[in-house]
Write a structure and sequence with these properties.
Blueprint lengths: L11 E4 L2 E2 L9 E2 L3 E4 L8 E6 L11 H6 L9 E4 L17 H8 L11 E3 L3 H4 L4 H8 L9 E5 L2 E5 L13 H10 L5 E8 L11 H4 L2 H10 L4 E5 L4 E4 L13 E5 L15 E5 L6 E5 L6
Parallel strand pairs: 5-6, 6-7, 9-10, 10-11, 11-13
Antiparallel strand pairs: 1-4, 2-3, 5-15, 8-9, 12-13, 12-14
Length: 295
């Protein structure tokens, strides 16, 4: 892996990669030319794609590819995943050159990730295999050292939490999160991405993994001014009405579950807090951002 430095904001760059073993007397091979654009500085409108749970147990996965084939026509500036990129399992290889990474990530996203940045949250299937966390860090260095991180894009702050199995995992990150929000005090919008959905009406609606720590997370998000939370794990699409921790709170948080893009579907029933529920349909979200709107 390598890092490019001193790039100019708002600039289109072309690149290719040479590979081979010249020491063995073989000529270097070169990939085709790829193009990416660096983020602009200032209050520019942009759009990004959010989706998750794209893993597919089939020998020749195709649903993730069918979803991803629609990405570029929306001209996203970047992509976020709510986790569970990999099938995982005790016998699976965590190597980025292994079958799981090849079939469930690199092949479905070929022609896309060469030019569009990709920011993942770590899901339970991504880490619940031998050396799974190390494999994720190898492919996504931003996950070093703790599997959670943040980044800014123009006037928006994004925080990616590591709640791969349980919401209570947030407790270990809470103080870091509060400091991260202080650094984002001038952002127009604050977006949180994680795997386990704190609010859901699906399979894990009342599961202890979801319920435990949920109240504390909501209180913290409201207090810190989080605007949007994107999660997966419960395999469906669910959008809730903006939620408050207490009735007299002046701020509310929008929660969206986007967790079906290749894996087996779960059924979400919806409740009085649900604005929209869609079951059994692979999907992704296109989110358009301006200084005043988040659509």
């Amino acid at each position: 892996l390598f890092q490019l430095k001193n790039l100019t904001p708002g600039t289109r760059y072309g690149y290719c990669v040479e590979y081979g073993n010249p020491r063995a007397g073989r000529a270097l091979l070169r990939t085709e030319k790829f193009v990416f654009t660096t983020p602009s500085i200032g209050l520019q409108d942009f759009r990004f794609i959010a989706y998750g749970d794209s893993r597919d147990r089939h020998q020749t996965p195709k649903r993730h590819r069918e979803v991803a084939a629609n990405f570029l026509r929306h001209q996203p500036d970047f992509i976020v995943s709510t986790g569970d990129i990999l099938v995982g399992g005790e016998t699976a290889s965590s190597s980025m050159f292994g079958n799981d990474w090849t079939k469930n990530f690199f092949e479905p996203l070929k022609g896309i990730i060469e030019g569009v940045p990709y920011y993942p949250a770590v899901g339970n299937h991504d880490q619940d295999l031998k050396d799974g966390a190390a494999g994720m860090k190898m492919v996504f260095p931003r996950l070093e050292p703790s599997l959670y991180y943040s980044f800014d894009y123009n006037h928006v702050h994004f925080t990616v939490l590591h709640c791969a199995n349980r919401i209570v995992e947030f407790e270990m990150q809470k103080q870091w999160f509060i400091k991260d929000m202080k650094r984002a005090k001038d952002a127009d919008w604050r977006v949180v991405i994680l795997h386990v959905s704190p609010f859901s009406t699906g399979k894990y609606a009342e599961n202890k993994w979801t319920v435990g720590g949920r109240r504390e997370m909501l209180e913290t998000f409201v207090k810190q001014g989080v605007d949007l939370v994107l999660s997966g794990h419960d395999h469906s699409y669910q959008r809730f009405y903006p939620l408050k921790a207490d009735a007299d709170d002046s701020h509310a948080v929008l929660f969206i579950v986007t967790g079906l893009a290749g894996t087996n579907p779960y059924f979400a029933e919806g409740n009085q807090y649900s604005a929209r529920v869609v079951n059994n349909i692979d999907h992704f979200c296109v989110i358009k951002v301006t200084p005043k709107t988040l659509d």
